[in-house]
Design brief:
The protein contains 15 helices and ten strands. It is α/β, with parallel strands linked by helices. The protein has two domains: 148 residues, D-Maltodextrin-Binding Protein, domain 2, CATH 3.40.190.10; 154 residues, D-Maltodextrin-Binding Protein, domain 2, CATH 3.40.190.10. Strands 1, 2, 3, 4, 5, 6, 7, 8, 9 and 10 form a ten-stranded mixed β-sheet that branches. α2 links the parallel β1 and β2. The radius of gyration is 22 Å and the shape is globular. 45% of the residues are buried. Bound molecules: fe (ii) ion. Fe (ii) ion binds next to loops.
Length: 337
Amino acid sequence: MKPFRSLLLLTALLLPRLLPAEALIVYSHRHYPSDDALFAKFTEQTGIPVQVVKANAGELIERLKAEGQNSPADILITADAGNLALAKAAGVLQPVQSEILTAAIPESYRDPDNTWFGFTLRARVMIHAKDRVSPGELSTYEDLADPKWRGRILSRSSSHIYNQSLLASIIAANGETAALDWARAVRRNMARPPQGNDRDQMRAVAAGLADVAIVNTYYLGLMHHSPDPRDRQIADQLRVFFPNQDGRGIHMNVSGGGVTRASSRPETAQKFLEFLVSEEAQNTFPLTTSEFPVVPGIRLSELQQSWGGFNVDPLNLGTLGELNPAAVRLFNRSGWE
Ligand SMILES: [Fe+2]
């Protein structure tokens, strides 16, 4: 072999080792600094860099659709099974066969067709002012329709997927007619027209504008652990209530993800999803975002433990996607803006 050719061959052999591994591209709707720290651990363990593109779920799904097979994305991460179902229906995810994922994640928190997998749990329940509501006054989501709550309830807009998924779970439990009546009555009981996010509802309850709000518990955790003393003071005035404990249990949702249809490295992308349900990753969520771990048996934070145990609606979360159009339609008829 001529020296020049052997040099070329040597270069070709060495080149892949000299270049850094190609980054895994993650489209994420999540906005937590702790996610970046977690993804850095994945890079540390595998040598695979992770590059995150952040936007809201609708934008990310539209972008994946527009990019088609040319999309650079390997992973889509978003909150709410309703959004994950929309991504699945849009055809931007591909199925993943992983024993690690199916063994770690309870069946109701992953897609039966294996296109998306939950990796954190989010309880959408009630918080109430400690001094104006006794826990005995609260019982079920259904009870929030009672006239005794007139002018005392707050919740965000029905255009938000969290409320759409909650209503989808109520449709699944009670049927469409009862769900419409419920949405109408709860809207009538609100202290003001829906505005702001879950944190704004908690601030308003602490300020005395209403007594009860429908929110996800991790927001209370984030306020409890906030560096801002005003947030901590608000959290101190509020208590979590887990409804429907004598019936189906609370509405639990997920944050989760899947491998994009366009990914050219589905095996690597699968490893990333498997990392998110590892004990190491699962242990971080209660302490950083105050979300519940999806893997059973992971230790909860002290704050979460202080809330006490609770029963969860066993509904398969794939149903939330199927019932999303009905939930949107009923909300529009109910007057809940
Ligand atoms: Fe959220």
